[in-house]
Backbone:
């Protein structure tokens, strides 16, 4: 019973592996007790391990030496514990397949873990079990081995003589996959929720922002009967696909989803750090805060609107006219800092180099443009008034136009003071309009560059998060000493420790070419995919 | 009459011991670990003085990370940075003296609203606080934060503002009664046009009153620099500063004779602050019994000192917040008079917060505490040894019989506990002794 | 235009009968254990829609849309009525346990949130740049109390920062999020030091003398006694009212626990934000006042049921009222004078002259009572020297005072 994975391009690789070795695992799955709440299976665990090893090795360059040494010691210790190489050990014990199951605790006991394997070398496996009998609970059942976190756990395995296979054999693992290193897992969400009781995931208990951001995932965890997970790794990629049979689209909160989901979204340029598009409607949220938020949060939103709605006087409504004139979703991108201005070369180098931030969104109604400009002007006036109260020079407002569009730029006053310029001098907050899109950015450069780029292809919708490790590493490196001081002051680390922390962070970031996470909803299904690409 | 500033000569009867080293490090710095204290006992008085006041060229400048600290323009970060400098104490006397000058030229960001300017003022104390008073006072008269704080940036020939000139005389250099209202008005004219632009001192000639002024009985077209030059030469200024230093470094109620002696020493040194203070620190007066633990620890002494006595590390931001809750918010003194200090620090509520700070610190609630308390008690299993170890760590081993018995009782009650728990309980108890509130 | 010059201020000081009618009665002990809680409505509460001049034609004319709150408003009997959401507080005022004072403000009102708040906090309408903003009126009052009181004379409840109002020169004013901060903690457990803890020997040692060490030892003994009293009182405390589930109610309950526990804390500040209602004011304002009504009523019930009703006074104010005319966004913009409230011990009496809706200053109500006169009343109720606290504030505007 192979469930075809369609819709997703990523589904192809999952589907292609299907059915290869399912029959091999079925007897193992058949023995998993019905009470298990989560089960993972791999037809070829050795290949899976090899793929993991290939992905992780070599350890990213630039990691602090002592950390690398500690990893080395760990691996060596593991080898000693396993009497040899990890791969040989796994081949011996589970070369013919592996099924892991999590069992909820019996009254008064602990959670338990069960592993059912088909050893490649039954005699050697039996010998290993016998050698470690004082530490490992293990029994042989025909051509299989059963490991448990306790003797009681081992006893909970369904007897091979049971009249019918258990529910996990029929559970419909999408592709109880074989030779190409896939791990397949399922969790019984219903059972988990019953066990968690009031601590089970529930949208109603999430605070304001979290509710908005995580609504699709939390809803899926709260409503779906099961969660499917597939994991595949090779030397350059790790892919994780999660699927749950429930969708926010079919829930009351569906109104929070953006209406313009299929609109083309801006691509993250090659040197970009982060791109985030949430398929959500701010307009819907702010139009009816009491419907979507807890009472305290809804009150806070009302307070915000009391001011936001007044910025443009009676001429427009913040929600209906300003947000209503946009075709959500919005996309947030983080771009690398612009090259330093040559004019500033007399000042000492600034210890903090801010990346640029830009939020962009398609325009639904040209009438919103005037509202946006008026609102931005009022905001700028307020900010300048507050700066004046602190004796700071105002930002200079300028209307500008170029090939990418036109907009309003608040240019920072020049810095003639002592030392390096304050961080706010790196900002030139900009509202820019062009090509049917609006950009609100921390700098003019980011706004213009974003709208000058052709938009990407029409989108399949959904939430997308893209992180580019090397660009993030470069941004961290640019402000490194200031970040280090932050850790010294906030965490009490000494200089060397703070340096090591960021060295490790930069090394790890540099090793990840790209991490892409997407959440897709159709009428009845929620899919989350993570795709991590190792930089070689 | 013997000279109170004559050098202290250790003898068999009055040796340079752990108590003396602890006293020096508490008053001329923010205390130090037991290991450092023991090393300095062995090294002797001169080496110990050299430890608290090394030649400035030999240690790292205090502003190595200044740009990083001010980059965000965040006052909390600047405050944590100052606490970090005190925790590091690469030049104990400099860190300590900058604290003194912060309380002396007490400027608050509450009004200045410019964390950069505040950080730069503190950096000026670091740089000039042990130099000549002439140079320091002139720098302060051109300090953007101070000029803004005392409204000299609106002091113009047309509308003179006397706030700055008045505090310059009353609180910074001469003291009440040592100048006339006429002097204040005339000095205010001299400082007209001493303004601030883009965060730096900026002289505006067209707003400056360059007419004739009468100051301390002299006539001339004085400007601010002339006022400073006249003020520092006045004998009342030496007396005023000497009394302030004695209060801060030696005794809350100094003898007039000691004030006169220190004032003379200061004038002989060419008004050099560092020379004067080092002379004071190695004097008989400084090491006299009357000076020992006669001052109430300020929140900074208590908080930063506790961490340093334990040889531990903790998060400066969290320590700064604790100091604020105890009434000492650096960069936000309550008024231009600075903190009142001494017994005013120690209300019963403050005592509780101090005691609870030590409990929190030992429980690791101010960032990771390293090394772990258990380390200090390694190998010590007998309650008496543990009580003695705690007394050495926090009190240089100097405590009276009831205190000793109390600590022993706590240690005995912890006999069954593991080393970490026992260490925390006994150290906390030691910090609850009355001696521990004293500097 | 000027109604609050120095002379009339002083007159108001002495003649104002809105407070203290009952406090002069015999059953309340001399003011040395009274507690003042200042509940500050942040953002500028719309006074005209809180205490509504229902019978004034000018009101309806200025507020064609916002006058809808007249429906269901609770009459006060002097031509004004409380916002419909203030049901419980209305009952208290009518029953003599609360008071409204109309038209409180200051001359030449400042319409900036920050500056006007600083003026109310420092009690200095002459607040010009020469005045260093470092102390507030309650902070200066705390300085007076600090000498006499062993505990924490003043505290900011709920917030992270101690507001200017509570900053003094000497008194240490903490910001309280948990009363547990003032129990005596142990480094080895999450519980306060138990009665028999050996560490108590350390502080129980008898002391003599007047030197610094004796001072420290005596302070320690007092502190531990204080903490023990607090711990015992906290253990005894059971809420005697049902608090609603809101941030304001949690803050007020914390204040109530402190009052009931008795910690020498006599000046408290609680902030409650969101009153900057520039647009679509009706639902927002009703929601805020509803929260205020429920939370404050519960708190007053609680302290009264614990027998502390007469020694607690809650003073409610905002940095300014809002303009008389509504704006085109169905909201109101920053204005000037507004009513203030007092609830609990000693709150009773006259309401003061209501501001004239037909004689405005640039579209704003003209204050009929200077806020410092109200402060003076509150300080007298506390048994403190109002003149000492408000000294800087009563000087005529324009006189330069040194920042100290």
Residues:
């Amino acid at each position: 019973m192979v469930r075809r994975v369609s819709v997703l391009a990523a589904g192809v690789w999952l589907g292609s592996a299907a059915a290869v070795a399912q029959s091999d695992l079925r007897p193992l799955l058949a023995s998993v007790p019905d009470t298990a709440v989560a089960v993972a299976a791999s037809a070829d665990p050795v290949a899976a391990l090899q793929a993991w090893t290939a992905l992780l090795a070599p350890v990213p360059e630039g990691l602090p030496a002592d950390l690398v040494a500690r990893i080395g010691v760990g691996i060596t210790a593991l080898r000693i514990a396993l009497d040899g190489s990890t791969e040989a050990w796994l081949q011996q014990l589970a070369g013919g397949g592996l099924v892991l199951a999590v069992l909820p605790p019996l009254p008064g006991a602990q959670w338990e873990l069960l592993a059912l394997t088909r050893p490649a070398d039954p005699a050697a496996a039996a010998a290993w079990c016998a050698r470690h009998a004082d530490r490992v609970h293990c029994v042989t059942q025909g051509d299989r081995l059963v490991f448990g976190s306790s003797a009681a756990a081992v006893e909970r395995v369904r007897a091979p003589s049971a009249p019918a296979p258990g529910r996990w054999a029929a559970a419909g693992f999408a592709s109880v996959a074989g030779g190409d290193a896939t791990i397949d897992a399922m969790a019984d969400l219903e059972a988990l929720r019953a066990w968690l009781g009031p601590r089970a995931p529930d949208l109603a208990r999430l605070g304001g922002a979290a509710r908005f951001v995580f609504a699709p995932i939390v809803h899926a965890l709260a409503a779906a009967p099961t969660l499917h997970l597939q994991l595949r790794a090779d030397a350059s990629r790790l892919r994780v696909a999660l699927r749950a049979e429930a969708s926010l689209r079919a829930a009351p909160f569906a109104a929070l989803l953006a209406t313009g989901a299929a609109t083309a979204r801006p691509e993250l340029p090659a040197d970009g750090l982060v791109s985030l598009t949430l398929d959500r409607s701010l307009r819907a949220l702010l139009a009816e805060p009491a419907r979507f938020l807890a009472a305290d949060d809804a009150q806070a939103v009302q307070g915000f609107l009391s001011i936001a709605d007044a910025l443009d006087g009676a001429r427009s409504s913040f929600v209906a006219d300003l947000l209503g004139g946009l075709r959500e979703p919005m996309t947030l991108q983080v771009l690398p800092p612009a090259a330093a201005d040559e004019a500033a070369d007399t000042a000492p180098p600034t210890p903090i180099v801010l990346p640029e931030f830009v939020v962009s969104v398609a325009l639904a109604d040209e009438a919103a443009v005037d509202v946006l400009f008026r609102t931005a002007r009022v905001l700028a006036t307020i900010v300048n008034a507050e700066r004046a109260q602190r004796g700071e020079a105002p930002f200079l407002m300028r209307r500008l136009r170029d090939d990418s569009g036109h907009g309003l730029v608040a240019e920072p006053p020049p810095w003639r003071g002592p030392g390096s310029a304050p961080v706010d001098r790196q900002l030139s907050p900009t509202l820019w309009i062009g090509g049917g899109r609006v950009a609100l950015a921390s700098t003019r450069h980011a706004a213009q560059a974003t709208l000058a780029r052709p938009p990407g292809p029409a989108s399949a919708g959904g939430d997308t998060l893209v992180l580019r490790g090397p660009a993030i590493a470069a941004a961290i490196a640019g402000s490194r000493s200031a970040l280090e001081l932050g850790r010294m002051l906030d965490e009490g680390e000494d200089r060397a420790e703070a340096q090591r922390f960021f060295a490790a962070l930069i090394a790890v970031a540099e090793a990840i070419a790209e991490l892409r996470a997407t959440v897709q909803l159709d009428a009845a299904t929620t899919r989350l995919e993570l795709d991590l690409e190792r930089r070689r | 009459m013997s000279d109170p500033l004559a050098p202290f000569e250790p003898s068999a009867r009055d040796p340079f011991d752990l108590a003396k080293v602890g006293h020096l490090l508490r008053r001329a710095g923010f205390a130090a670990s037991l290991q450092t204290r023991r090393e300095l006992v062995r090294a002797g008085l001169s080496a110990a003085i050299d430890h608290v006041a090394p030649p400035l060229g030999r240690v790292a400048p205090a502003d190595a990370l200044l740009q990083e600290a001010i980059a965000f323009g965040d006052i909390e970060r600047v405050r944590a940075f100052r606490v970090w400098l005190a925790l590091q104490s690469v030049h104990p006397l400099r860190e300590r003296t900058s604290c003194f000058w912060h309380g002396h030229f007490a400027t608050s960001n509450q009004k200045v609203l410019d964390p950069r300017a505040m950080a730069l003022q503190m950096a000026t104390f670091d740089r000039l606080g042990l130099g000549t008073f002439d140079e320091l006072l002139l720098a302060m008269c051109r300090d953007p934060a101070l000029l803004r704080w005392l409204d000299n940036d609106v002091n113009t020939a047309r509308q003179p503002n006397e706030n700055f000139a008045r505090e310059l005389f009353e609180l910074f250099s001469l003291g009440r009664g040592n100048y006339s209202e006429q002097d204040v008005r005339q000095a205010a004219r001299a400082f007209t046009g001493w303004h601030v632009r883009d965060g730096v001192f900026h002289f505006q000639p067209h707003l400056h009153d360059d007419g004739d002024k009468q100051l301390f009985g002299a006539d001339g077209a004085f400007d601010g620099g002339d006022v400073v030059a006249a003020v520092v030469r006045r004998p009342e200024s030496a007396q005023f500063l000497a009394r302030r230093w004695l209060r801060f470094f030696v005794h809350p109620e100094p003898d007039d004779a000691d004030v006169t002696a220190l004032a003379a020493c200061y004038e002989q040194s060419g008004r050099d602050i560092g020379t004067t203070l080092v002379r004071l620190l190695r004097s008989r007066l400084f090491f006299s019994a009357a000076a020992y633990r006669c001052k109430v620890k300020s929140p900074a002494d208590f908080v930063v000192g506790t961490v340093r006595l334990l040889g531990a590390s903790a998060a400066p931001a969290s320590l700064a917040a604790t100091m604020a809750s105890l009434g000492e918010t650096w960069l936000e003194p309550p008024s231009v008079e600075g903190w009142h200090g001494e017994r005013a620090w120690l209300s019963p509520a403050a005592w509780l917060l101090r005691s609870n700070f030590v409990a929190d610190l030992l429980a690791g609630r101010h960032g990771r505490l390293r090394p772990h308390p258990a380390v200090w008690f390694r190998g010590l299993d007998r309650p008496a040894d543990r009580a003695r170890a705690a007394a050495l760590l926090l009190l240089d081993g100097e405590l009276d019989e009831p205190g000793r018995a109390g600590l022993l009782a706590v240690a005995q009650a912890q006999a069954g506990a593991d080393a970490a728990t026992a260490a925390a309980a006994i150290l906390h108890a030691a910090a609850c002794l009355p001696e521990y509130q004293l500097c | 235009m000027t109604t609050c010059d120095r002379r009339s201020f002083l007159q108001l000081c002495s003649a104002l009968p809105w407070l203290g009618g009952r406090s002069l009665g015999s059953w309340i002990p001399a003011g040395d254990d009274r507690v003042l809680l200042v509940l500050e409505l942040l953002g500028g509460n719309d006074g005209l829609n809180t205490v509504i001049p229902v019978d004034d034609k000018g009101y309806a004319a200025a507020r064609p849309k916002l006058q809808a709150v007249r429906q269901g408003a609770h009459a006060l009997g002097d031509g004004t009525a409380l916002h419909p959401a203030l049901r419980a507080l209305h009952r208290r005022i009518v029953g003599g346990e609360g008071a409204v004072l109309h038209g409180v403000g200051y001359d030449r009102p400042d319409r900036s949130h920050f500056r006007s708040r600083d003026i109310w906090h420092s009690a200095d309408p002459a607040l010009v740049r020469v005045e260093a903003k470092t102390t507030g009126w309650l902070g200066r009052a705390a300085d007076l109390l600090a000498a006499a009181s062993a505990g924490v004379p003043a505290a900011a409840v709920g917030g992270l920062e101690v507001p200017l109002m509570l900053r003094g020169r000497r008194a240490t004013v903490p910001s309280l999020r948990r009363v547990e901060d003032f129990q005596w903690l142990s480094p080895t457990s999450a519980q306060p030091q138990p009665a028999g803890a050996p560490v108590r020997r350390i502080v129980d040692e008898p002391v003599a003398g007047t030197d610094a060490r004796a001072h420290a030892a005596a302070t320690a003994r007092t502190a531990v006694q204080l903490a023990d009293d607090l711990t015992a009182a906290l253990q005894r405390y059971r809420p005697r009212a049902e608090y609603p589930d809101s941030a304001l109610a949690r803050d007020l309950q914390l204040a109530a626990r402190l009052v009931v526990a008795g910690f020498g804390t006599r000046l408290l500040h609680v902030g409650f934000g969101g009153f900057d209602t520039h647009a679509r004011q009706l639902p927002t304002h009703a929601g805020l006042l509803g929260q205020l009504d429920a939370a404050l009523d519960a708190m007053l019930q609680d302290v009264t049921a614990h027998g502390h009703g007469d020694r607690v006074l809650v003073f409610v104010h905002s940095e300014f009222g809002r303009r008389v005319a509504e704006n085109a966004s169905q909201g109101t913009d920053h204005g000037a004078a507004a009513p203030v409230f007092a609830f609990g011990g000693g709150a009773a009496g006259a309401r003061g002259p209501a501001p004239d809706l037909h004689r405005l200053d640039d579209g704003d109500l003209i204050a009929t009572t200077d806020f410092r006169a109200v402060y003076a009343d509150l300080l007298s109720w506390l048994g403190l020297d109002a003149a000492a606290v408000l000294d800087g504030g009563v000087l005529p505007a324009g006189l330069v005072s040194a920042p100290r």
Remarks:
- Residues 1-18, 20-31, 392-404 of chain C have pLDDT under 50 and may be disordered.
- The longest helix of chain C spans residues 212-236.
- The first strand of chain C starts at residue 35 and ends at 41.
